[in-house]
Amino acid sequence: MRALVINCTLKPSPQPSNTEALAGTVIAALKGHGVEVDVVRAVDLNLKPGVETDMGEGDDWPGVHEKLLSSQILVIASPTWLGRPSSVAQRVLERMDAMLSETDDEQRPVAYNRVAGVLVTGNEDGAHHVISEITGALTDIGYTVPGQAWTYWHLGPGPGPDYLDDDRGHDWAASTGRAMASNLVHAARALSAMPLPAPPS
């Protein structure tokens, strides 16, 4: 089983990413279940604006799309900015919109029988709103989002420290991340054993 984690931080490599640091706990938990994990730091790529799988020369999205189709588990990891998902997360979801019109050999949307979860960091509240926005988009595309397939970290409303600067709340976020990983893996196994059929015509 394979998983893809798309880190939607605004910080290009090699800058430290709080979102990447928390994602590391979920990645470790997934690997503990025997899952192979790929990580994409979307801001490092040239992801052209649009809602097509391939926007032409220089577009790096087709490579990400290929990883999506080879993964049974997807984790979108985003910081919170202005109480919303990052602009990079929005770009990723817009590019995933093309998957709505893509089907497999059995005429099922290509996101069917794949599971997804969400991870959020930020120093202000708004994590549940970000989780809701991203999971809503993923279910529209066709992903199955199991219950409690999320984790987040923040220290309440107002400006504050970053995840990498403060140890408070790490145990809770990591424990919730381990539960998230377990729920994703077991839901993916269930769908593999009993896949969703193509939608009725």
From TrEMBL:
- What is the protein name for this chain? Flavodoxin family protein
> What sequence ranges are listed for the domain NADPH-dependent FMN reductase-like?
1-148
Species source reads Streptomyces plicatus
Q: Which SUPFAM superfamilies match?
A: Flavoproteins (SSF52218)
Q: Name one Pfam family in it.
A: FMN_red
